[in-house]
Amino acid sequence: MSSYDYDLFVIGGGSGGVRAARVAASLGKKVAIAEEYRYGGTCVIRGCVPKKLFVYASQFHEHFEDAAGFGWTVGRSSFDWKKLVAAKDAEIARLEGLYKKGLAGANAEILETRAELVDAHSVRLVKTGQTVTAKTIVIATGGRPNPHVALPGHELCISSNDAFHLEELPKSIVIAGGGYIAVEFANIFHGLGVATTLIYRGAEILSRFDEDLRRGLHEAMVAKGIRILCHDTLQQLSKTDDGLVLETLNSGTLQADVVMLALGRDPNTEGLGLEAAGVAIDERGAIIVDDYSRTNVENIYALGDVTNRVQLTPVAIHEAMCFIETEYKNNPTRPDHDLIPTAVFSQPEIGTVGLSEEEAGKRYGELEVYRAQFRPLKATLSGRSERMIMKLIVDAASRKVVGAHILGHDAGEMAQLLGVTLKAGCTKDDFDRTMALHPTAAEELVTMYAPSYRIRDGQRL
User: 172 to each of 146, 201, 252, how far by Cα in Å?
Assistant: First the structure.
């Protein structure tokens, strides 16, 4: 008989923690999981899911406009922010219920409390003060927005968490940051009729993405009416009767009703008792793990954003399943972080998998780059001027496709399928042998027969 209260104790009720707890419990292990806020984590409660619902909402004004080109007469339209927030809240509550239902169905004990480590095998439940023990502990507490406390007036700003619960839709907003969260919310608020400014210290938004897509999206956003200030930062904020006043490094004084800081996310490790348990963290506060998600303390694992490896929900779930294989099925399994499809739900979308042109140029001696830019069929009648961009990056020696990048409608959906293709190791010849599906935008991926240009030793030919 075990001398511990639980075989497994999971701290954090996000996608990774819930998956680990539910599957372990279904294998007959005695499992408890603790979450201090709401089950579902960042993705379900204050991230991917509500954000995508807001993206859909923000697109309708363009849909109404496009309809005229196809013969529809659309009457006067109006938008109700409170109705959107209420509908979003109802859906999030439904999903949270499903997470709890799955845990309960597997006989995992659901604890609604903050949990902190006391030592390598002991956890204190803050709500009751009770201390429980576990043979194995999984930390899956995710991340949180960086509050940027060095910025004078930072307390006047909101984060992406707060954006889902604004009582009123502002007339104007300034968003600081150039990553996918900043870019997505800039498009959301603009689509809902808010005067939107994006301010970013870098030379171009979305620093880790392919350069063509970054420039293409920037141009599309500006054409829609979003103001983008690159090579600039906020210096300080103050509040007046007319709203917020922002002093910038290079653009003078700005005014806005709301300022959002989207300046990165930090691992959520503060006050968890990691030092008491002997768990090592890095300089950013992320828990250090090995290839199997095990910390330096043998019986403690960490999954998902708290490890600051790849901050994506499906990755946390994958890491949880690898933990199950390693700990409970005698099948040590390393998480596979290679060739992860990624989407930015901007307007237009970005979908990408594999290496950017810049990254591939550093890794391979010679590349073939296939690039197409075109106006999608729908835009011919709607009258929109936006363009789609599609790129395939090919290692010239092996003919293997090492990167695929799309800017345009449904780019995320295409990137998911391209993820299978690249994971299977398909070559450009495989693409060329595939029959096109006409008329679609995706057919361009299999009809780019001649390279647009080559890159040898980092130089375009």
Answer: 22, 21, 17
- Residue 271 has which token pair? 């006050």
First to last CA, the chain: 70
Instruction: Name the residue with tokens 């496709």.
Output: 401
Q: Is 148 a catalytic residue?
A: no
Q: Closest Cα to residue 202, out of 141, 246, 264, 247?
A: 264
Parallel/antiparallel/unpaired status of strands 122-125 and 115-119: antiparallel
CA 420 to chain centre: 20
pTM above 0.90, yes or no: yes
Average pLDDT over residues 31-39: 96
Written as six digits, the tokens of 244 are 């917020």
Distance CA 209, CA 215 (A): 10
Spatial separation of the C-alpha atoms in residues 454 and 47, rounded to whole Å: 39
CA distance 280 to 260: 32
* Active-site choice (121, 154, 409, 438): 438
CA distance 442 to 62: 22
**C-beta neighbour count of 375 within 10 angstroms:** 13
Alpha-carbon torsion, ordered 214, 217, 222, 224, to 10 deg = -170
pLDDT tens-place string over residues 50-85: 999 999 999 999 999 999 999 999 989 999 999 999
376, 382 Cβ separation under 8 angstroms: no
82 CB contacts (<8 Å, ≥6 apart)? none
User: With contact defined as beta carbons under 8 Å apart, do 217 and 251 qualify?
Assistant: no
Contact 368, 396 (CB under 8 A): yes
Q: How far is CA 211 from CA 208, 218, 223, 365, 390, in A?
A: 9, 11, 18, 20, 12
Residue 148: strand, helix, or coil: coil
DSSP assigned state of 178: -
pLDDT digit string, tens, across residues 114-126: 999 999 999 999 9
